[in-house]
Automatic annotation (TrEMBL):
Domain Carbohydrate kinase FGGY C-terminal: 247-422
Organism classification: Bacteria, Pseudomonadati, Bacteroidota, Chitinophagia, Chitinophagales
Membrane-spanning ranges: none
GO biological process assignments: xylulose metabolic process
A GO term from the CC aspect: cytosol
Entry annotated with the keyword Transferase: yes
Source organism, top-level taxon: Bacteria
Name of this protein: Carbohydrate kinase
Alphabetized UniProt keyword annotations: Kinase, Transferase
Family per record: Belongs to the FGGY kinase family.
Pfam families: FGGY_C_2, FGGY_N
UniProt GO MF annotations: D-xylulokinase activity
Residue ranges of domain Carbohydrate kinase FGGY N-terminal in the record: 9-216
PANTHER family: SUGAR KINASE, XYLULOSE KINASE
């Protein structure tokens, strides 16, 4: 039996580190998921263990290249953003993989924005809301200001997706999707690094930008491989939708964060939008992707726990509640800026409907920030809320002018990383079966 040709993809999340092998029809032939014990940085703050991650990626690929049942023609990478791996002159990591959730020093942040025109102007230029260490460029700035000895030792700082690629092909590159995800590094108005990057000497620590659609040649275990440079996970997950859907659309990607992404909104971000948690990503083709964020998945998780405690049930029971519009017939009006409270005397079914109505009203407000004045006629929802019938029915009512679909792409982030370099490994031209949809 001949070996199955295809692509290996490493998809590195904060919790789960995944390996996939896809055949040319983008079917998953092999899948492996690992999680590692966290370590701590020099301040005792938890972070991913870059040593364990490095060993796993190298070891996994070496083992799969020896598997007689598959033929790996290429390898691609996606990973969470806002995280740098700092390399010394020897090419080895010389600092922890600092956690983007670590609080950023307030005084340093205040001084930085004062130096570069104020927070509103800076956020507008970089399409990056003020997010502390989630603005990964500021992580490097903090090292320069507060750990100058380490800064001097850094030869190159790679965002995590590009470090994954570096482990295999050995070359130092940056990628536009990692630079363009709320890093505060990129001037979206001038389509280049913001002036502060050179002014602070950070440009000397950053690798040259390499096209997200191109590959690097490598020879691993005696086998030639085409290697992608690595993609930011949110941008990678958007690629299957970009390639398959032809009509103007907006994608609402739901999870802990619910992110409304509108590739057809070309208007620059305003200060008012930035203050309401709008931002822009850069797609793998280098185009701005105007988006708005809402912490709705997190709120849902917290409120479900409260409801379960109040009604003395297992939280899992709430996920089985079916949509019943009668339960909202006499519900009070929803104030999206107020804390959630269910009506007095409500059953658990009614209370849960009221919770989802509360979240949908907030979601409607967030999505409209990037929807207005665009030709969008279709709204696709993927992730956890796409499987929630109450959410989907109420969202369809909130946007009666749009065709609203629950959509799914199996392992969208990994598939997107493979699609980005499709021509380097896949002999088939047309891939149109990736997105499954259900209209509401």
């Amino acid at each position: 039996m001949s070996a199955i040709p295809g692509i290996a993809v490493f998809d590195i999340g904060k919790t789960n580190k995944k390996f996939f092998f896809f055949n040319e029809d983008y079917q998953i032939v092999e899948e492996d998921c690992h999680s590692f014990e966290e370590t701590v940085d020099e301040d005792g703050f938890a972070c991913d263990d870059i040593r364990l991650l490095t060993q796993w990626v190298k070891g996994k690929l070496a083992a799969k290249l020896k598997d007689p049942g598959i033929k790996i023609k290429a390898v691609s990478f996606s990973a969470y953003g806002a995280s740098f791996v700092h390399l010394g002159a020897s090419g080895k990591a010389i600092a922890p993989l600092y956690n983007y959730l670590k609080p950023f020093p307030g005084e340093l942040e205040t001084a930085f924005y004062a130096k570069y025109g104020g927070a509103d102007l800076f956020a507008t230029e970089t399409a990056s809301p003020v997010l502390g260490n989630l603005n990964s460029g500021l992580q490097l700035y903090q090292i320069k200001e507060q750990k100058p000895a380490l800064f001097r030792q850094i030869h190159t700082s790679l965002h995590l997706p590009q470090y994954m690629g570096y482990l295999i092909h050995g070359q130092l590159f940056s990628d536009i999707t990692s630079i363009g995800c709320h890093t505060a590094l990129w001037n979206f108005q001038e389509n280049r690094y913001h002036r502060w990057v050179a002014a602070e000497g950070l440009d000397q620590k950053l690798a040259p930008v390499f096209s997200s659609k191109d590959t690097v040649n490598a020879m691993i275990e005696g086998q030639p491989l085409k290697c992608g440079v690595g993609l930011h996970d949110s941008s990678a997950a958007f690629i299957p939708y970009m390639q398959v859907i032809k009509a103007p659309f907006l994608l609402l990607s739901t999870g802990t964060w619910c992110i409304s992404m509108n590739p057809f909104n070309k208007a620059p971000l305003t200060v008012a939008e930035l203050r309401q948690d709008c931002l822009s990503y850069l797609t793998y083709e280098g185009s701005p992707l105007k988006s708005s964020r809402l912490f709705a998945g997190n709120e849902h998780e917290q409120e479900v726990k409260k409801l379960a405690d109040h009604f003395h049930v297992n939280p899992a029971c709430l996920h089985d509640i079916r949509y019943d519009p009668e339960l909202l017939a006499d519900a009070p009006g929803v104030n999206p800026t107020a804390a959630f409270r269910f009506s007095e005397g409500a059953t658990i079914q009614k209370a849960y409907h009221e919770l989802i109505a509360h979240l949908v009203r907030k979601q409607e407000r967030s999505t409209r920030l990037v929807l207005s004045n665009t030709p969008v006629k279709q709204l696709y929802v993927d992730g956890g809320f796409a499987r929630n019938g109450i959410f989907m029915n109420l969202l369809a009512k909130a946007f009666p002018q749009l065709e609203v679909y629950a959509a799914s792409v199996s392992q969208a982030t990994a598939v997107g990383a493979a699609l980005a370099i499709h021509s380097a490994w896949n002999t088939k031209e047309k891939i149109d079966h990736l997105v499954e949809v259900k209209r509401y």
